[in-house]
Design goal:
The complex is a heterodimer of chains A (280) and B (423). Chain A is mainly α. Chain A has helices at 20-25, 27-41, 51-70, 80-102, 104-107, 109-112, 121-150, 164-186, 191-205, 218-226, 230-241, 248-279, and one strand at residues 7-9. Helix content of chain A is 69%, strand content 1%. Chain A is globular, with a radius of gyration of 21 Å. Chain B has helices at residues 23-38, 44-47, 89-96, 129-139, 144-158, 173-185, 203-219, 231-237, 255-268, 342-345, 402-405, 411-414; strands at residues 5-17, 50-51, 62-74, 78-82, 104-109, 113-116, 191-195, 223-227, 240-245, 248-254, 280-281, 285-292, 299-302, 308-317, 321-323, 325-330, 336-340, 350-352, 355-364, 372-382, 385-398.
Chain lengths: 280, 423
């Protein structure tokens, strides 16, 4: 018998075995998942896609009132709406990506239990649809930005703004890899789910979103700089708001953390993908 | 059918842990990790797995849902997998669908596998029927252009044109299932794995679905693995049958044999010894054992072509007894079909001497008897005096003369006996 099997199902697989070919073959499914996210999110609502804007606007106003007004936290001279809006949009993108990825197994147990397709499609699709949402929200940001430019505020827009897509992708992959790790671990032990719920909330305060890094000093600043997301948020603010800081070292550190965690996450995910169904 | 093997199961096994996942699991995980990765021992939990028997509580927390499954499926073969609940059928399908991976062994396959463990996987309530066709189709591995090309056929087959642009949440459950099945039926894989999905929809649609399955398996020459409890459908579609029991293959061969084997199993599992069915005996008569059709249990199968039906009765009498062995065959409506009563019409009573006795008779069966269920009364009776009464103490499954005449006679339609003409 010639050994020309097209498929072998074995108990043990290699540690890192990403089915890139499979993902490409299932690209239409990727597209369908993205489409589904958009088609279904605001079904049976009157305001429909306007909700993309309402949520960040209200949050921004709230932050301006609480952090900017009551707490009096500085924004380093940047206009408060722009400062908070940029932070909120990017943070929402990160946290929604992370949540999406970390629910990969638990939320899709039904489908995963019936049909095989490369499981990575699901978090990748979530990442994509959130990215589109971010792009839509970017229009809101640009509109407010233009308003301030017309009013003659010096926002010191500079060349580093071209790095914006890269920074967003870094954010996405941070979220993806941490989310995948959590997803793989929670498929068996649910404990992490509870930790992650409030952990993410705390983590937001450990990232310079509602405050600029410059307000921190000494030990606290050192701790904040350990956060791999810090350089990303700082660089975004530096590129178009005239506050924040830009550091190649920081970004390199962030990228290194991202690559390592991505590597780990793919191993763990690969492992969990095989037998999550028996444990979920 | 070619001689190429489409699917090969090579000593495949699947171990499951029972009970809840909790703190205990962590200690087992750590122990396993310590034993296999650090000490390089064998996985300690692989050894303790017990065979899968749903009804009896075992000692071990680990159970082999499938154990040592080895068999080949040739290209173009249509195989029915049958077995009672918990026999391992679903695990079998899950392994083949790559939804979960085996604990031991290897499965090899040639060609594209599509598995239908469910219809309408990935349907989203808020999306319209049309959108869901694309969603479900792409989950099943079709590309958008493939779906586009068949969209009209899919909608037509489902028979829900009017609702196609309405969200699925407004559909009746039957309509949802129709839509799901019709997407799946336009898949074109080399190997199709189907679970119980035909048990859906109304009678009209079931017929349509079955027809589609037949078209796929017989006309298009695909390899099909079909799991079902619907014996009629299995017999209709498949040429080969595999019976699973407690995670092991207990029979592999012709589908008709497999089905009757399975039915026998199903009945055996709740059968009991015939002597338990004795209603009463005279106080001086004791029955220890009755063997009917070669078995002591109250269900057995009369095979196609079987001409002799042995009966053995053992017991003892406290006095000398003249009685007669009476055996009456009745159909499911309790109408007598045939009887053995040699004491009466042949004048050959049974003379039991005081002490132990053993009565052994061989009943001659006509060649062409109907297929169906027969219940049997066994009595000790002479004239009008009864000595032992065991009404409906045995159920016989009669296969009928399918092997000899090509087609069985159905008892409930044509009676117990098929007549023949002089040559």
């Amino acid at each position: 018998m010639a050994e020309d099997w097209t498929l072998e199902i074995k108990p043990k697989r290699r540690l890192l075995d990403i089915d890139l070919k499979g993902i490409w073959r299932y690209r239409d499914l990727w597209y369908m998942y993205v489409k589904r996210d958009f088609v279904t999110v605001y079904k049976q609502t009157i305001l429909g896609p306007l909700w993309f804007f309402i949520q960040p606007i209200f949050t921004t106003v709230m932050y301006m009132f609480v952090f900017g007004g009551l707490a009096g936290i500085s924004t380093d001279g940047a206009p408060k709406p722009l400062f908070y809006l940029s932070g909120i949009m990017l943070w929402n993108y990160f946290s929604e990506c992370f949540n999406g990825a970390s629910n990969t197994f638990t939320a899709n147990a039904g489908v995963f239990g019936k049909i095989y397709f490369p499981r990575l499609i699901v978090p990748l699709a979530t990442m994509t649809s959130l990215l589109i949402k971010l792009l839509i929200q970017l229009f809101l940001f640009i509109a407010v930005y233009l308003y301030y430019l017309r009013a003659g505020v010096n926002l010191s827009l500079n060349i580093t703004v071209l790095l914006f897509p890269v920074l967003v992708l870094m954010l996405a992959f941070h979220a993806l890899s941490w989310g995948l790790i959590v997803s793989s671990l929670t498929s068996k032990y649910r404990d992490l789910k509870y930790l992650v719920g409030f952990g993410l909330h705390l983590f937001m305060y450990a990232t310079p979103i509602i405050y600029p890094l410059s307000v921190a000093s000494g030990k606290i600043r050192a701790i904040l700089e350990l956060n791999p997301l810090t350089p990303i948020f700082e660089a975004v603010k530096y590129s178009c708001l005239g506050c924040g800081s830009f550091s190649w070292v920081g970004l390199a550190y962030s990228a290194a953390v991202m690559l390592v965690s991505l590597f780990i996450s793919l191993i763990v995910f690969n492992q969990a993908e095989r037998d999550f169904l028996d444990t979920v | 059918m070619s001689d190429r093997i489409a699917i090969q199961f090579d000593h495949v096994g699947k171990l499951y842990r029972l009970g809840l996942v909790g703190t205990g699991t962590l200690s087992h995980d750590l122990n396993r990790w310590w034993q296999t990765k650090i000490l390089r021992h064998e996985d300690p939990y692989l050894k303790v797995g017990e065979t899968n028997d749903r009804a009896h509580k075992g000692k071990s927390d680990y159970v082999w849902a499938l154990k040592d499954i080895t068999f080949d499926v040739k290209e173009g073969e249509v195989v029915g997998i049958i077995g009672k609940n918990g026999a391992g059928k679903s695990t079998f399908l899950k392994l083949l669908s790559r939804v979960t991976s085996p604990t031991t062994g290897t499965i090899r396959a040639r060609g594209k596998i599509a598995s239908l463990l469910e219809v309408g996987t990935g349907f989203h309530r808020e999306m319209t029927g049309r959108e869901n066709i694309f969603m479900n189709g792409s989950i099943l591995g079709m590309t958008r252009s493939e779906i586009n090309a068949r969209l009209d056929e899919i909608i037509e087959f489902a028979g829900i044109e009017r609702y196609i642009d309405t969200p699925v949440k407004r559909y009746s459950s039957g309509m949802t299932v129709r839509l799901g099945f019709s997407v799946a039926s336009f898949l074109e894989p080399d190997i199709l794995v189907v679970d119980e999905v035909l048990a859906v929809g109304d009678a009209e649609f079931r017929k349509k679905a079955l027809g589609k399955m037949r078209e796929v398996s017989q006309c298009q020459g695909r390899t099909v693995l079909f799991v079902s409890h619907n014996m009629k459908a299995v017999k209709n579609l498949c040429s080969r049958g595999v019976v699973l029991d407690n995670g092991m293959i207990t029979f592999d061969g012709d589908i008709d044999d497999a089905v009757s084997r399975y039915i026998q199993f199903a009945n055996e599992s709740n059968s009991k010894p015939i002597i338990k069915n004795i209603r009463w005996t005279k106080s001086f008569l004791h029955i220890d054992r009755i063997e009917f059709n070669g078995v002591e249990s109250d269900f057995s199968v009369v095979r196609s072509g079987q001409r002799v039906l042995p009966v053995v009765i053992e017991g003892s009498v406290d006095v000398d007894l003249n009685t007669g062995l009476v055996i009456i065959f009745k159909n499911t409506y309790d109408t007598p079909l045939a009887s053995l009563e040699e004491g009466e019409y042949k004048g050959e009573p049974l003379c039991l001497k005081k002490g132990a006795f053993r009565v052994e008779k061989k009943i001659l069966l006509p060649e062409y008897i109907g297929r169906g269920k027969v219940s049997v009364d066994i009595l000790f009776k002479l004239s009008s005096e009864f000595h032992m009464e065991a009404r409906q103490c045995v159920t016989l499954g009669v296969e009928g003369g399918a092997d000899i005449f090509g087609k069985p006679l159905i008892m409930n339609q044509r009676g117990f006996l098929g007549l023949e003409t002089e040559d």
